[in-house]
Write a structure and sequence with these properties.
Strand content: 5-15%
Distance between the termini: 18 Å
Protein name: Regulatory protein TetR
Keywords: DNA-binding, Transcription, Transcription regulation
Number of helices: 11
Radius of gyration: 24 Å
Organism: Pseudonocardia dioxanivorans (strain ATCC 55486 / DSM 44775 / JCM 13855 / CB1190)
Order of helices and strands: EEEEHHHHHHHHHHH
Number of strands: 4
GO molecular function: DNA binding
Structural class: mainly alpha
Strand order of the largest sheet: 1-4
CATH class of the largest domain: Mainly Alpha
CATH architecture of the largest domain: Orthogonal Bundle
CATH superfamily of the largest domain: Tetracycline Repressor, domain 2
Helix content: 55-70%
CATH topology of the largest domain: Tetracycline Repressor, domain 2
Pfam family, one: TetR_C_1
């Protein structure tokens, strides 16, 4: 999303003609607006964000904010862009460590998600609400970098895109589950009671009740690594099969989503 304005003044004292004092506005720019919007979402959730409330927090007439975002949807896209700007996708040398790069990227995304849990649903859904070529640049950089990483590792373009989709599908599902996980009684020490599983009939849900301890001891980082192990194993198998089949197999491409 391109900025709809560069900067707007805020009140600051300066000398006017005849030696009098006038009020001059200090700069208000798009980033300042987005940072404040993110702060509000972090504190109170997406539902609490409105142009009126944002304007009040910035000390501005809400109508003036529309030069930076034409609607709340556009404002939310800007927040997603702001948050994803912190996601780094390092590049491997000659594709040797592509799996390590994917793991680092996954943990970087998870760290961002844990820092901004209310933004996670936006990170997952907002880009998909816009045609690929019209999405904010910051949302496309991870796609470009990961596809480039996998092609450099030896995947054909179509296989690299498939790998990207598998990776992001798993990663998005994982962080959504982790940040939205809730317990019935956080102060309860008994796992069945803590998770509310005692309410489930033992005859109908024997497996869930038996897994109470494992469910209560959920470790997001460890679960992420276990899932990545499975994903990387599958991608390695795909890569090996593609390399064995020769150049004729490694052709083509497809649209992203």
């Amino acid at each position: 999303m391109e900025a709809r304005g560069t900067a707007e003044g805020d009140e600051a004292a300066s000398s006017g003609a005849g030696g009098g004092r006038t009020l001059r506005r200090a700069a208000l720019d798009r980033r300042t607006v987005l940072v404040e919007a993110l702060r509000m979402i972090d504190a109170d959730g997406v539902e609490a964000l409105s142009m009126r409330r944002l304007g009040r927090a910035l000390g501005r007439d809400p109508m003036r904010l529309y030069r930076f975002a034409a609607s709340k949807d556009e404002l939310l896209d800007g927040v997603v862009e702001l948050v994803l700007a912190d996601l780094q996708v390092p590049r491997a040398v000659d594709g040797a460590d592509w799996d390590v790069v994917l793991r680092r990227c996954a943990h970087s995304f998870r760290a961002i998600a844990l820092a901004h849990p209310h933004v996670v649903p936006l990170l997952v859904t907002r880009p998909l609400a816009t045609p690929l070529g019209l999405r904010p640049i910051a949302t496309l950089r991870p796609l470009e970098a990961i596809v480039d990483l996998l092609v450099g590792a030896g995947f054909d373009p179509k296989g690299a895109l498939h790998g990207y989709r598998l990776f992001t599908g798993f990663l998005h599902g994982h962080v959504l589950n982790e940040v939205q996980e809730q317990v019935a009684d956080p102060d309860e020490t008994d796992d069945l009671l803590r998770l509310g599983l005692h309410r489930l009939p033992a005859r109908d849900f024997p497996r869930l009740r038996a897994l109470a301890h494992e469910l209560a001891a959920y470790d997001g980082a460890a679960e992420l690594d276990e899932g990545l192990d499975i994903l990387v194993t599958g991608l390695r198998h795909q890569l090996s099969a593609g390399l064995r089949s020769g150049p004729a197999h490694r052709e083509g491409g497809a649209g992203a989503s």
